[in-house]
Design brief:
The chain is α+β, with helices and mostly antiparallel strands. Helices cover about 25% and strands about 35% of the residues. The structure holds adenosine-5'-triphosphate. This is ABC-type quaternary amine transporter.
Length: about 375
């Protein structure tokens, strides 16, 4: 279903979709503490962009600055090329969804959705048509006469989403909207949010600390730490090519090995780890002899019993000892260690389960590990 986007609200800029957001060198201080540092961000019109990061990294602050809810120290926010830095929230043409649904308890689902439209003087047939469109989009038609107290958490959040979209905002801002729901519902409603965003062609900026949610939903994501956006990219790109140890670790389990750059060949970086040499990607500017860290995801690593049994296409990186092996259904999760630290490898569930104390060789798929600057 395509939703009619013709609107009395701000129309699309000539020749394009609406809702491009630009954040330009935004700095924010609270009581003398800097919580955002000269932050730049561009979210394309129609894009689903996620701000992902640990608690306190500045995600909500940045979202609220885009919304116009916070006075910040310096910088500029624009939507569709117009500077909105000094424009009040209600004139920014923005929709919000928060963790606590904030529905009007005395109004039905349909009345909640109609509320903002009525404030904007939408009446009669136009009002009914738009409310029906939103009930279709959010698949709430059969619940339209219920009150919020008669709905599940997931249904209430769909009403909140519908209410936010009813006025065809240029940008939809969502702050941990699935935070109060259980895991299963989070996945289902996450997919729903993505579908609704795509069908309504609305730019979405979504805040979460849950990387799985970010993967499922996002066209691109920005990973935040301590008031900085550390890396921006498509989920797969950021997962497989992190540019810092923080991003590598925050986006999932990873193994790190202290190494030294051996040289560069054919666009790859050869890293020496102890007596071994591994072909990896990233950091072409590091010079031979410079210290670095090699980072590899558990699924990029194989275990073997000796050098003669390293699989084709893999390169040995460390001689280790098995410390623990556990069956996890789809995988066997093996913990290992050597003098440099501990590691994690996922084996296929059909592999044999290694015994604790057994020696093993870890090897990495060629060109799959990432080189990071040392100590980052
Ligand atoms: N009104 C405020 N006054 C003072 N400090 C604040 C205020 N709001 C946020 N902060 C601080 O700013 C920093 C960033 O907070 P923010 O809420 O943006 O983080 P977050 O990444 O969204 O975290 P969470 O996932 O826990 O919501 C934190 O250190 C927080 O304590």
């Amino acid at each position: 279903m395509r939703i009619d986007m013709s609107s009395t609200n701000a129309d699309a800029p000539a020749g394009g979709k609406r809702g491009e957001v630009n954040v330009d060198k935004v700095t924010c201080d609270f009581s003398g503490n800097r919580v955002l540092h000269e932050t730049d961000l561009t979210v394309q019109a129609g894009e689903f962009f996620t701000l992902l990061g640990p608690s306190g990294s500045g995600k909500t602050t940045l979202l609220r600055i885009i919304a116009g809810l916070i006075d910040f120290t310096s910088g500029r926010v624009s939507i569709d090329g117009s500077d909105v830095t000094r424009l009040p929230t209600q004139q920014r043409d923005i929709g919000f969804v928060f963790q606590n649904y904030a529905l009007f308890p005395h109004l039905t689902v349909a009345q909640n959705i109609a509320f903002g439209l009525k404030l904007r003087k939408v009446r009669g047939a136009a009002l009914t048509k738009r409310v029906d469109e939103i009930l279709d989009l959010t698949e709430l038609g059969s619940l339209k006469d219920r009150h919020p107290s008669q709905l599940s958490g997931g249904q209430q959040q769909r009403v909140a989403l519908g209410r936010a979209l009813a006025q065809r905002p240029r940008v939809l801002l969502l702050d941990e909207p699935l935070g109060a729901l259980d895991r299963r519902l989070r996945q289902d409603l996450g997919s729903e949010i993505r579908r609704i965003q795509q069908e309504s062609e609305t730019t979405a900026i979504y805040v979460t600390h849950d990387q799985e949610e970010a993967y499922i939903l996002s066209d691109r994501m920005g990973v935040m730490e301590a008031g900085f956006i550390r890396q921006v990219g498509a989920p797969r790109e950021v997962y497989s090519a992190p540019t810092s140890a923080f991003v590598a670790n925050f986006l999932g389990e990873t193994n790190t090995f202290p190494g030294e750059v051996g040289g560069h060949e054919a666009g790859a970086t050869v890293v020496r780890v102890g007596d071994y040499a591994v072909t990896a990607t990233g950091q072409p500017a590091l010079k031979p002899g410079e210290l670095c860290t090699l980072s590899a995801r558990p699924e990029q690593i194989r275990l073997s019993t000796g050098l003669g049994t390293v699989p084709a296409g893999f390169e040995p990186v460390a001689d280790v000892t098995v410390t623990e092996a556990r069956f996890f259904g789809q995988t066997i999760r093996v913990r290992l260690s050597d003098v440099n630290g501990s590691y994690l490898v996922d084996l296929d569930s059909s592999d044999s389960i290694p015994e604790p104390g057994a020696p093993a060789v870890m090897s990495i798929r060629s060109h799959s590990a990432v080189v990071l600057p040392a100590n980052r």
